[in-house]
Specification:
The protein is mainly beta. The chain is built from six helices and 40 strands.
């Protein structure tokens, strides 16, 4: 292809784009199919990798796309469950509402390194530094696709895209035109072999969507609904770590999640520009697990509003997130003998601009930036009240010739709580031996900013010690002692450097094949860790034994050396502990056997992390994960079947070492079968999760997940 022809093609492609950032376009045309028949295979187009439209095979990052066919047929009752079959993604569920996922490293009770977006609006909760997946305000039928970047993406998206990005891309009101309603109702087994016996639990959900085009300029959408579930069973007995520590008993909770969302689109005459305004509310309650134990959340909700303006390739986006709620500690007791109360109110305001230009016949230059202002009011972090964040990026996609492309990108970010600006570069060399095949060599650097809690936590909890662990004659005598939990204003940002070799190819216009090998070095990772211990000279109040005992409690201190860990802890805080190296391999294939049947399979290997500090401070991910399955839809029938294997993992991120321990490897089988009636206006589906009814625990401190059977009725008017 000549340089002039390339420039013309690029210019036309960019000029025709009306939503480079907010939504994926119609995929490029495929060879003609028979009339009234869909193509066997449609190549996927993504926007998240570079904030511009490009074929998946040409993206400068490793990506997975969850299509609307998969979303429609999946048995999942929550969004996070959709990512179980994505290679490189580790998922843990700790309660009926609490999920966490991390790419290419171990997840935790508060996974902090994955950025989530809805049409470009951040869903990341800056005050705690994680994503509450149940606060997504739209229903699954409103989504066009979900794009997942597996690996660092701060060069485009800034802070908190350290290990990956999940971008939910919704359908426009014109694409949703009509009225639909969905009712789900289900049960789950509440009797666990190594946990509580709760009998049969129930879950119920309902949502409705109405969308219409008023004329050729105005279109709108309104949706609403809710979901509720009983509590899952808690584990009982000894935590499997050899210490004899028993699982603590607390009143577990289910969840209730209301949602409402509205959107209005305006298309200017002659396509000069497009304006989208949206707003909504999503709420949740139930258990959230943290480093200081579980909290029961009540009245948690986020109200949001967005305005997106696009003119050719120029975009301007505004959004605000207003979050509030209360949470009560279930194991964390304050010095007054009462559960710790956590009240939070946060407000986020964000302005982003971006543009794309082509020049020289070989370059596609994208650039932009954003400014964000956060207001915080947190009862357990009273000294932190606001934060300003700003950043700017530039990226050049260089077409050297038909065989070689280079992507060069960089972003600078400045945060109030980080002393120096943060530089996040990305370099990718893409070799194109054929139009449908790409080999990519890349280097990325990304970062996560310390959250407000990381910087300003300020509370104290009562810990307990069974004195029988010191003197068997005192077995059963419980001594209560205070432990401080404080933030650290001196924290620097976490960062990661990633080298990757990857391949993506389209085989005979039927399947996408991918392979990736990565090596990452995480620096200055933030851990909540013990930073002080009680000494003989400073025993806790009411210490019933000779103070000298405090010096010999395991692990014993080396004579003449300062010792802050082990023994009887007196303070926990956040620290940048050091460097952790990770490496792994991801293999996958996803393709169409026929127009009705799609199959997929993938495998992920993650080596044991290599920290330059104590291995006991880090969670260990499953080394082996395997997923396979199928999706079927033709005529009146639709179905889905998936099998996931997850290897053993190790967790140490709740309370102290007494509560650390492994989770067993497990295999989870999910399936769904449905039929359509009345000219596709009614669809009835029965879905099953964990069909073999295994006791699955995806975090050592989490709930036990048993078989779920769900019925679904969907009506289209």
């Amino acid at each position: 292809m000549s340089a002039r022809r390339l420039a013309v093609c690029l210019t036309l492609a960019l000029a025709s784009s009306t939503a480079v950032f907010a939504q994926a376009p119609t995929p490029p045309a495929q060879p003609p199919a028979k009339p009234d028949e869909p193509p066997i295979y449609e190549e996927q187009v993504v926007v998240t990798a570079s904030k511009l439209e490009q074929q998946l095979v040409n993206a400068p990052a490793t990506m997975t796309v969850v299509t609307q066919d998969v979303i429609a047929s999946t048995p999942a009752t929550n969004y996070a469950e959709l990512f179980r079959s994505v290679p490189g993604v580790n998922l843990s569920q700790t309660s009926a509402r609490d999920f966490n996922l991390t790419m290419r490293s171990a997840t935790s009770t508060l996974a902090t390194s994955t950025l989530a977006l809805l049409d470009g609006r951040s869903l990341y909760l800056d005050f705690f530094g994680f994503v509450a997946w149940d606060l997504l305000p739209v229903n699954p039928n409103e989504l066009k696709q979900i794009e997942v970047i597996r690996g660092p993406a701060s060069a485009v998206w800034g802070a908190n895209a350290m290990n990956g990005v999940v971008n939910f891309i919704s359908k426009t009101p014109r694409e949703l035109a009509g009225t639909s309603a969905t009712v789900t109702f289900g049960t789950f087994d509440g009797d666990a072999g190594n946990g509580e016996k709760l009998g049969t639990g129930s879950m119920f959900g309902i949502n409705a969507t109405h969308a219409a085009a008023i004329n050729d300029r105005w279109a709108y959408k309104v949706s609403g609904g809710g979901y509720t579930s009983d509590a899952f069973p808690r584990p009982a007995g000894a935590i499997p770590n050899g210490t004899g520590t028993q699982y603590p008993s607390f009143a577990n909770q289910g969840t209730t999640q209301p949602k409402f969302d509205t959107r209005v689109d305006y298309d200017a005459p002659d396509g000069k520009y497009k304006l989208t305004m949206a707003g909504g509310y999503s709420g949740t309650d139930g258990i959230i697990h943290t480093g200081i134990g579980p909290f029961d959340m009540t009245g948690v909700g986020v109200t949001y509003g967005t305005m997106r303006y696009t003119r050719n390739a120029f975009k301007l986006n505004l959004f605000t997130n207003i979050l509030s709620g209360d949470a009560k500690g279930l194991l964390s007791i304050g010095l007054d003998g009462k559960p710790i109360l956590f009240k939070f109110d946060t407000k986020t305001y964000d302005l982003e601009v971006g543009n794309i230009n082509t020049f020289g016949g070989r370059h596609v230059l994208s650039y932009g930036g954003n400014v964000r202002f956060n207001v915080f009011d947190l009862s357990i972090a009273p000294r932190g009240d606001n934060r300003t964040e700003m950043g700017a990026y530039v990226q050049d996609e260089i077409f050297l010739n038909d065989l070689i492309r280079v992507s060069l990108g960089a972003r600078f970010d400045k945060y109030d709580n980080i002393a120096d600006p943060v530089f996040s570069p990305r370099v990718a060399l893409i070799l194109k031996p054929a139009p449908d095949h790409a080999v990519r060599l890349s280097f990325n650097k990304a970062f996560r900013s310390p959250s407000l809690i990381n910087n300003y936590l300020e509370t104290a909890i009562v810990n307990q010690l069974n004195l029988g662990a010191i003197n068997p004659a005192l077995n059963g005598v419980i001594y209560n002692f205070p432990v401080l939990a404080n933030g650290n204003e001196a924290l620097t940002e976490e960062s990661t450097e990633s080298f990757e070799a990857a391949y993506t190819g389209i085989i005979k216009n039927r399947a996408t094949v991918s392979a990736a090998m990565y090596f990452t070095t995480n620096r200055d990772e933030i851990f909540f860790t013990q930073v002080a211990r009680y000494r003989a000279a400073t025993p806790p109040r009411g210490w019933p034994l000779p103070p000298a005992v405090l010096e010999v409690l395991p692990p014993a201190c080396v004579p003449g050396k300062q010792c802050t860990t082990g023994g009887l802890p007196s303070e926990f805080s956040y620290r940048n502990l050091g460097t952790v190296k990770n490496k792994g391999i991801e293999l996958g294939i996803d393709g169409a056997v026929t127009r009705a049947l799609n199959l997929f399979a993938n495998y992920s290997y993650q080596a044991e992390p290599e920290p330059d500090f104590a291995l006991s401070e880090v969670n260990l991910p499953p080394q082996n994960r395997f997923n396979t399955g199928m999706n079927y839809s033709e005529g009146r029938y639709l179905g889905n079947l998936s099998i996931s294997y997850v290897g053993e993992a190790y967790w140490q991120d709740v309370l102290d070492a007494r509560f650390a321990g492994p989770t067993e490897a497990y295999m989870q089988i999910n399936g769904a079968f449905g039929m359509k009636f009345s000219k596709d206006k009614i669809a009835a589906t029965i879905k099953g999760i964990n069909l073999t009814n295994r006791d699955i625990q995806s975090h050592v401190f989490g709930d036990i997940l048993k078989r779920q059977i769900i019925g679904e009725l969907r009506f289209n008017f």
